[in-house]
UniProtKB/TrEMBL annotation:
InterPro entries: DUF2934
Region feature (Disordered): 47-90
Pfam families found in the cross-reference section: DUF2934 (PF11154)
Segments of skewed composition (Basic residues): 74-84
Biased composition (Low complexity): 56-73
Lineage: Bacteria, Pseudomonadati, Pseudomonadota, Alphaproteobacteria, Rhodobacterales
Name of protein: DUF2934 protein
Protein's organism: Salipiger profundus
Length: 90
């Protein structure tokens, strides 16, 4: 399935031309050359296709690594005693 290449926006061309200008050593009077080179470079790069997720991957719950390895769930940490509770024990 072939999609027509969308035209790059003026801001993307300007940004690419700016980096080309920097790479060339910031020469004066070559702005049109950098602009056309940036435009050609952006038109030559095909757009990234959007990835599709599998329907099964979204609906299936993820298993935890410990459960998959046959390990039991870890015990919750014990609650820390407050200063008031510690002083009552003493």
């Amino acid at each position: 399935m072939s999609h027509p290449s969308p035209m790059p926006t003026e801001s993307r061309i300007a940004e690419a031309a700016y980096y080309l200008w920097l790479d060339a050593g910031c020469p004066a009077g070559r702005d049109a050359d950098h602009w056309t080179a940036a435009e050609a470079a952006l038109l030559a790069v095909p757009p990234k296709p959007k990835r599709k997720r599998a329907a099964a991957a979204r609906s299936a719950p993820k298993a935890k690594a410990g459960a998959a390895a046959g390990k039991s769930a870890a015990k919750p940490k014990a609650k820390r005693k407050t200063a008031k509770a510690r002083s009552a024990e003493a």
